[in-house]
Each structure stands twice: as structure tokens, then as C-alpha cells.
Amino acid sequence: MTPLTVVWAYRRTGKFAFHVLTGALETDARTVGVPIEFGNGVRAVVAAVQRALAQGYRVLVGWSFYSPDFALLANELREVKGQVDDVRVLHVAGGVHATAEPEATLRAGFDLVALGEGELLVRELVHTLNAGGDPHAVAGIGWLDNGVLRRNGRAGRAVLDEFPPFGPAHDRFGPIEITRGCIYACRFCQTPYFAGAAFRHRSVDNVRYWVRYLVGRGFRDFRFLTPTSLSYGTHTTEPDLLAVEALLAGVREEIGTERRLWFGTFPSEVRPEHVTAASLRVLKKWVSNKALIVGGQSGSDRVLAASERGHDSATIERAVALCGEYGFVPHVDFLFGLPGEEPDDVDATLALMDRLVERGAKVHGHTFMPLPGTPFRKAAPGMLTDEVRRRLRNLASKGQLYGQWEQQEVTARELAEVRRPGPLLPQRPPA
Ligand code: SF4
Fold first, then answer.
1. Residue 330 carries which DSSP code?
2. How confident is the model over 35-64, as pLDDT tens digits?
3. Residue nearest to atom 2 of ligand 1 (CA)
4. Which of 12, 118, 216, 316 is deepest in the core (most CB within 10 A)?
5. Where are the alpha helices (DSSP H) in 39-156?
6. Residue with CA nearest ligand 1 atom 7
7. pTM of the shown model
């Protein structure tokens, strides 16, 4: 039987997903001994694969990417395959995009797709390949059979407490995921469609365990991953501030007063209706950040309703005013070019942004992208008029707006292009 090496096609965006997968492999007796390599870029992936092949291993190359990076990663795959063409190498793509667009992903040349959450699936897949078994038998695996998509269901969903939030044995760290899934159904967002329409929370005890571990490893900054920070502990739209405070107080007890606790800010955010005097008092007591990232998305109530955001524009304005009262600097996310946006809606958004900026807020600008798997997946890519671009650049020049909104306008168009299934590229049966 030929043993297996795992090579992650490891990039800056999406690297935390690999850390989680690494942690899942480290903590299963069947997979803990399988070597894992992190190949950053085509050259490093090729080198890692060649090394493993020379040592007599077969190789699983794992790819994970978000939809905007699909075209780029498909190119990298082609380059890797162009340099190492060996039946002992299997390229597997997982993550949000592969799950939403399995056929297009496979047609781009990946040998298998991993559908759904990665933790349980990666353990089964690596164990199966390492034992010489058939990967098609693993739940959540998809493949092309003479050009036709076949799939073996979808991977099971993880219980967060049962997995480390990163890969400690390989020194791969990241924010601690405290909540997965989302009960909201914003029509532009992939989260509920990928991770489910219910919250799954990591327990306070488990979070504290990993925070304690990080303190022992010398970390000084502690960040958390969640779709909506103030939803920690709840299963409804109503925040459970007792649960949030239990989490924050527990973390603070572990890290002391000198280390920094970041909550409601990068890489997560808060919903505007959750910003209340009571929630801000809790945050002020425990967190280190002065900035709060608030999801606003539009100044038009019509567009907010059409996107099923679950709040109106007045709520955004109230949240910003309250942040100011409690000494937080709100950074408000806006999404330009949402489907159905008319000139009046754009004017309402620009006017709201001006009012928020006057109150000391910063605007984080994004352009709408029709993401696979979402109800808006078939919508036209977000486009900005020259006038909107001029207004946004003006705000940016004054330091009041930041973000990738210009690049995302280009990416949105590319996404609309690549969502059409491409020609079938050669598939390789597993060795
Ligand atoms: S945008 Fe935020 S609140 Fe809305 S569905 Fe996505 S993760 Fe949930």
C-alpha cells in the first residue's frame, strides 16, 4: 500500500481554512501520522509534490478558495499539472465555491470536489486514501463521470467543540471560530447556504481552553471568527448578552489585562440592530478594540428589504450614533450595486454615508458580486456609475472610505463570466 502525503495549495486568502483542516487531521488517530506540507504558490506546491513522489508517497493536493479567486486558482492548477503529471497525484478542491459550483470546478481540471464542511470529510478522505481505499466512497465527494457530475451526498457538519480551531501541531494558528452558520438569509451572502441556517457555537469552556493554549504559546492578540459577533450563544435573532459577556469575561480572565481581546471587529462584524446601549456597555467592559465593524450594506430601505437584510437604514444610523456615545468608531460596510438598485437608492446610500461620516464613522466599501450558491447568484454583477465612483473616490481621498470596491467591480464581472461551465478538461481517475 502506498502511503499518502497531503500538500495544501496554501494562499493568504483562505489560509485559515487549511489551518482548521490541519487541526482536524492532527486530532484523528487514523490521520495524525500523515505528513502535511504547506505549498505557498505554484512553485512551492510543485516542489512539495515532487518531493513526496520521490519519497514513494502518493499525494493529495488540497485546494480551497472563495468564488472571486476561482479563475486564478484554476490557472494555478493548470500550471501545477503542467509541471507534475503523475497518476499518483490527486487534486481535490473544497470550500464554498467548490460546493456551490461543483461541475464548473471539476471542469476546470480538479480531480475531485469536496462538498460541504471540511473537518469530517478531510479526515475520511485522507484516511481512505492512506489505506488504499476508494475516495468516491467518502461522503461529500463529487466527481465527473464521462462529463456528468456524480456526488456522494454532502459532508457532515462539524460540532465546533470537537475540533481545534487551527492546526497547533503544525504551528498554524488563526482566529478562534466561535460561531458557524447563520440564521439570517441575506440574499447576497454564501454563509447560510454553505454552513447552514442555524447557529452552531463553540462553548465558552472550549474557547477558553484554546485561548489558554495560545497564551502559553506567547500570543498577545485574540480574535474570533463568527458571522455576527453579538449573536454568540443565541439561536434566534435576539442577542444573548449574558452569553456574550460570559465569553468575553472568560477570555479576559485567561489573557489578563495586558493582552488584547478583539471582538466585533476584523475578521468579524456586528449587525446594526444588535448595537444597543446594553451591548455596547458589555463590549466596552471587556474588549480592546475601539473600532466596531457594522454591517450596513445600503441606505435604501427598498434595497435592504429586497436583500432580506432584516433591518432598515434608520437602524444603521442609530447604531452609528450609539457607537459614538460609547466611544467606539463604527466602520460601516456598504455594498454598492446590489440587484434592483435604482438611481434613487444609490442617492439614499450616498446621503446616508455622508451623514454617518459626519458622525465620525468610516465607510468600508464593497461592490456586489453575484456569488454562487446564493439567491442572487444569477443577478447582474454590481456596476458603479461614473458619478458614484467620483463620490467614493472623494470620500477615500479624505480617509473616510476604504475597501476593495474598485477591484471587486472587476471581479464581479469575471465571476459572472466563469459561472458558465467551461469546456471539459482531462480528469484523472484516482491512482
Ligand atoms: S451577511 Fe452576515 S448576517 Fe447576513 S447571512 Fe451573511 S453572515 Fe448572516
1. E
2. 999 999 999 999 999 999 999 999 999 999
3. 227
4. 316
5. 42-54, 70-83, 96-100, 102-107, 118-130
6. 227
7. 0.95
